[in-house]
Input
Amino acid sequence: MSRRLAEVSPHLPHQHSTSVHPVLENQFLRLFTAYAMDFNKRYNRAGNLFHRPFRRVSIAGENHFMKMIYYIHANPKKHGVMQDFQKYRWSSYEAHLSNQPTKLDRYAVLEWFCSKENFIAFHQVEQDVSKIESFLLEE
Output
């Protein structure tokens, strides 16, 4: 699998890089600012919506990357939104399996799992994400 890591790694941020492409950083800034302004206007409030800043996490290898993908997809189940996270409407899980146009680089992600079938099988088994949770901001 280390060969795949080298082949697919151009699609991921470099492990030792902490910089973000300025265009991407600006787009996220605009998105979060617009969302906060709309939310504050809608609920007649003011101030910062996000109490803690987001932080970047370096991916420490193939297993870490695969578990992070799982963690993101399984988040609705973890927080009790729905039991079957694979059917969660707002998840990218289905977009990875679909043939519909998307901005996701689904083929790069599926390559990590060697096939679409392995991607599905990996998600059907509850993964131990305890080692990656220490990197996350959630309580």
